[in-house]
User: Fold RNase adapter RapZ from Undibacterium fentianense.
Amino acid sequence: MRLLLISGISGSGKSVALNVMEDAGYYCVDNLPPSLLIDLVRTLESEKIQQAAMAIDSRSSHQLQSVASTIQQLQALGHEVKVLFLTASSETLIARFSETRRSHPLSHHLQAERIASSPLSLVECIQAERDLLAPLQFLGHVIDTSNLSANHLRNWIKDEIAVEHASLILMFESFAFKVGVPLDVDFVFDVRILPNPHYDPNLRPLTGRDQAVVDFLDEQPMAHDLYQDIEHFIAKWLPSFKRDNRSYLTVGIGCTGGQHRSVYMVERLARHFQQSERVLIRHRQNH
Assistant:
């Protein structure tokens, strides 16, 4: 059976992810206690269900330490198990809770365990949840949903479903340094040293996917040299990540606004590695 475990920080988009999986034909269960995971899988297997997605969150805090061993048991039984962990910056999470006017799911649980009578702040709840879920974050692929719309996140998860059978997925992600470095990248390359198309009035409204911007940067010797250096670095170390049984390797390419130079470099690198690897492309500032 193909199993996807979805976890992450409250407000980071777990419900969105689970809905995407349900639309894709997965049998979905929300807020599953980890202690029930193996029994549920056995039941689903007896009913001939071939793919399922389960959301596990911090409300099962006392059972989270057992998730890693449970995954190993399921894999030993022949099941394909992957973990998707969603996170976001504290600023983003605070804004989302403010918009929905909902309390943090852990607020009442943590308050009951706290000696002091004063209520916990939202920031305290978020940090406590990060600490509780830390063991799960390193079990699978992390997606930083900061500044992402729900529709953008849906599209990213759909892309991942399409290539989920690859031994390693090479992810190229453009971003804006003025917004911040994403939390989900393994390597970060800074392309702000390249000439900026933003200062050309004709190129300013375009992106690094438009031919006029591509032509402009292709004419820059620095762009070619930087591309080669990044490409050689990834090609050299990619086999090591494969030997380490990594499922994902995310390469972040950043420029000032995440519109021209980083997008150009991501697209160019992706075209090269698509010849031999399973590649996904993400553009954070080009929604």
Notes: Residues 49 and 237 are 38 Å apart (CA to CA). Residues 221-243 form the longest helix (23 residues).
